[in-house]
Specification:
This protein is mainly alpha-helical.
Length: 599
């Protein structure tokens, strides 16, 4: 604009304007003394180039030279409204205010690694962001509000302002151990008057209100969450005792299954049959909890493999051996009973199977023999083996893993739904149980028109023979993202539903990407929220409803489910780990004290 005006006023004025522009360039482009770029003393100052320096470092050097620190520039220029975010248009405007002469668009793109369209202080200067977050957390725990902070630091209710010396000394006495007291004072001295007043500390009141809402939401669900956790532990403990009881009374799970639980040798037990069997054994009071634990895949039945997987695999292997080798159980028994004694004892049973080519350990042979010797007569007959002709083992027990079929299935899921999470929620896990059993998997493959090796794909996914698969087997990175978010919401709010209620401050029932990301940053979520939003927004609508996060409350986590370490999360999603704030550290300390008291 100056050059254009100078052209109208005449050549002399234009020359004068160019001189002024050259001086302005010198003023805003001078590198900070003592920095690694200031060592080029023999170079023309107008040729000073930041291009070889990473974007965050480049901006930090410039802000340090112009304002004094990144934190001070953030508070006084970029984040004047204290919402912890700055949009691109605001960022470019404030850069212009600071005299930045470089390519602002390119700088913003380099800083905005998650492509959220907004920047936080963590993306500009993680160290000073950590300092500020720790200070904010410390203030909200040490003081009840802005007025209380001035009163306590000033030492009297009559004090209305704090000088730099008083402030720096008082916060150390009050317990602040983070250092950088002079920098914090300059940040709080918003009007550069050499003093801090209650008006410059209104953010303390805002943080206190946010923490109050968070604690209320957490307290509402604390009782319910504790009850669910007690029930889960009780169910697992009772099931463990139940298995130990069966093993002690019947010596093997196979015999316990055939004698006590399933005397008719049917393929599976429904809930009513299971309850009756438990009642006969004297387990009426806890049978419901045991059923819920054994019916791990939610198929509404209990089979031998759910009671003991190794016993089921042993029986399935023996069943295939006699079917493929002899055609039926009677022919197999005749081959085993070569002496035609019409009965076979344990020692002869093992030797005969070794002779016929079925090799197993002595422990497994005894387990199988006890399962066949249903009446505990110490020998087996042809009748003891005839049930195998009508028994059908679960197909997954004998299938071979097929990685190629698994990868083909995953590619079809992405092609059909766009991403694995959408496929998981809309096709594989419609009931939001966080698990997909074999029946659900088979139905999903039929709907997907998958023509490959279904059993091989299942076995490749269900590598631990648990009888179900989770999102982790489909897409580990998306599973870990959701797992970390669920564990954080459970810890901080009691549930994902309560966390959504806190984030939905306007009560509209939906969260846009901007609202979601801002809320999580304000709530000190330890990872970047923009990639998480992209994972949750399975339909790509740019917004989330309550159902978009509430399904996480139905997830039944295993004891082995643990959140990723910061290093692992950074590797998966290329995002830096935010250090623990003072509030998080204090909260962790309080949890440890509560656990000690409970013990």
């Amino acid at each position: 604009r100056r050059l254009a005006q100078a052209n109208l006023d005449g050549g002399a004025a234009a020359v004068c304007c160019c001189c002024r522009r050259k001086k302005m360039l010198q003023d805003v482009s001078s590198p900070p003394r003592g920095s690694f770029v200031a060592k080029r003393k023999d170079a023309d100052i107008l040729d000073w180039d930041y291009s070889s320096i990473p974007a965050p470092e480049r901006l930090r050097e410039y802000l340090g030279a112009k304002v004094g620190s990144s934190l001070l520039a953030w508070r006084r220029f970029f984040d004047r409204d204290d919402d912890r975010f700055v949009r691109k248009i605001e960022f470019l405007h404030h850069l212009s205010e600071l005299g930045w002469m470089g390519d602002g668009d390119a700088l913003f793109a380099a800083l905005d690694e998650d492509n959220s369209g907004e920047l936080t202080l963590a993306e500009i200067d993680p160290d000073q962001c950590s300092l500020w977050q720790s200070f904010v957390s410390w203030c909200t725990h040490a003081f009840t509000g802005s007025a209380d902070m001035v009163t306590k630091l000033g030492g009297s209710p009559l004090v209305e302002e704090l000088s730099q010396q008083v402030f720096c000394t008082a916060i150390k006495v009050a317990g602040w151990e983070g250092g950088q007291e002079d920098l914090l004072f300059s940040v709080l001295d918003v009007k550069s008057q050499g003093k801090v007043t209650a008006d410059g500390l209104k953010w303390v009141d805002k943080e206190r209100r946010r923490q109050s809402r968070q604690m209320q939401a957490k307290q509402r669900s604390l009782t319910e969450s504790a009850w669910r956790e007690r029930q889960k532990k009780k169910a697992k403990s009772r099931t463990k005792d139940f298995r130990a009881f069966l093993l002690k009374r019947y010596a093997s799970y196979l015999r316990a299954w055939r004698v006590a639980m399933n005397p008719n040798d049917s393929a599976a037990l429904n809930k009513n049959q299971f309850m009756k069997a438990c009642a006969k054994l004297g387990w009426q009071t806890n049978s419901t909890l045991i059923w819920q634990t054994l019916d791990v895949d939610g198929s509404a039945n209990v089979t031998l493999d759910k009671l003991d997987l190794k016993s089921a695999e042993l029986m399935a292997s023996f069943h295939r051996f006699i079917t493929e080798g002899f055609g039926n159980a009677s022919a197999a028994f005749m081959a085993i009973d070569r002496a035609n004694l019409k009965q076979v004892r344990l020692s002869d049973f093992g030797k005969a199977l070794e002779r016929l080519g079925w090799h197993r350990s002595q422990v497994e042979l005894k387990e199988l023999f006890l399962g066949l010797d249903k009446d505990d007569s110490k020998f087996i007959t042809e009748d003891d083996m005839k049930f195998l002709d009508r028994w059908r083992p679960h197909p997954m027990l004998l299938a071979q893993p097929n990685s190629q079929a698994m990868n083909e299935l995953k590619e079809m899921l992405v092609e059909r739904f766009g991403n694995h999470l959408k496929a998981w929620r809309h096709l594989l896990d419609k009931d939001n149980s966080s698990r997909c059993n074999f029946v659900e998997f088979t139905a999903a493959c039929r709907k997907l028109h998958f023509r490959g090796d279904l059993l091989g794909a299942w076995r490749a996914l269900d590598s631990d023979l648990s009888g179900y698969i989770t999102l982790a087997e489909i897409d580990l990175s998306e599973h870990e993202y959701l797992l970390n978010f669920k564990m954080w919401t459970d810890q901080e709010f009691g549930s994902a539903t309560n966390a959504f209620a806190v984030m939905d401050s306007d009560g509209t029932g939906t969260l846009t990407k901007k609202e979601f990301c801002r809320s999580l940053c304000n709530l000190e979520y330890p990872s970047r929220p923009a990639p998480l939003f992209r994972v949750l927004d399975v339909d790509g609508e740019g917004k989330l409803g309550l159902s978009g996060v509430a399904f996480l409350d139905d997830w039944d986590l295993d004891e082995t489910d643990e959140p990723l370490s910061p290093a692992s999360t950074q590797t998966l999603h290329e995002q830096p780990h935010m250090p623990q704030t003072h509030m998080q550290q204090q909260h962790q300390h309080q949890q440890q004290q509560q656990q000690q008291q409970q013990q």
